[in-house]
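Appendix B. One record, verbatim.
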Amino acid sequence: MGWKFRDKFIQMENEKLKKVFTTKMIWSATYLGGPLAAGILMSKNYKVFGKNKEAGISVFLGIIFTIILFVGIFLVPEPIIDKIPMPVIPLVYSLIIVWVAKKLQGKELTEFLKNNGHKASYWAAIGYSLISLVIILIPFAVYFFSGTTNVIDGYSKKVDVSKNITLYYDNKTDDKISKKLAKALKISNFNGGAGADLFLNNEKEYYKLTIITEDLSLITDTFIVSGFNELENAINLFVNAGKPVEIYFSDPTLKKTIVLPKLLQDTIYQAVDTTIELLEYNINSKQKIFYNKTMPSAEVEKLGKTINNLKGYFSSEDELSVFYINKKQFFALKFYVKKALWNNRDLQKIAKGTVEYLKSVGTKKDVKLFFIDGNILREKEIK
């Protein structure tokens, strides 16, 4: 009785071994679990056909093609990958692998099934595809979790500029500086595209703000460079860094870095000193003057009294922020005005009237007048 049971068990096991996976099953498993899943199923088929050598080669090739596939995907630029619908890539390689499977095993599969051979179940095919998927995901999981302890090499700290933008900075950079810089970028509406990484280094004579881009050729575009010049000026105007913040561009590897070119402009006056530190003077709860350290306090008070006295120009109920900067040769008085209104005669009259009043109450130094558009971060001298 025992021998009969043993023989029956062996017969059942042999029948299990003699079940093959059809090309349709291989296609489904490949789509779900990648080339490795195809290699496993084709290996199982080869074992049924008594080809153990080919069975081992199938698994090996499945591993190799899986590595080639993922390396290839990572090498394709992100903008191109983003344009490809998600199902397309697995669909393409699944069709290719099924074509290979038909060429290598199609005749043997047909012959086997004609001779009363058995098909394996679709559930078994799906099971092997899931095993393949787990094997593929393990290295990515290890890489991901091992990288969480240190944000990025050399940049152990970070602060969010927005939902999509993160500023990473080194240990030499004070937290207050990084937070002010992040706030300045947010105020400047810096978007950096759909997600961006920024890196801040505290160098000896300046702060190095690196913007990552895959296209370093953008610095040859005068219009783009001009915009970043304005951004750099705005950052230095608002951040009390003690030394200038300079913008650099780098590729994603951070190995190739290029400094932002500085452009000279005729109509747009670059009045921002990169080492400037702004102080605040409150005229009232809604009106403020921002000035630099070298601006005499008596001159700031004169401007405050001027704005208070010119009630026909400035209502105390209106919000107002002006900049009063002491340049070596002159005082720069700056009002926020949208670019579309820079040539408005009434606004120019109000601004010029303010300068004339300052002169009348004792300001000796030459006062130059500027309009600033906070949205495009540009300013123009009004003469």
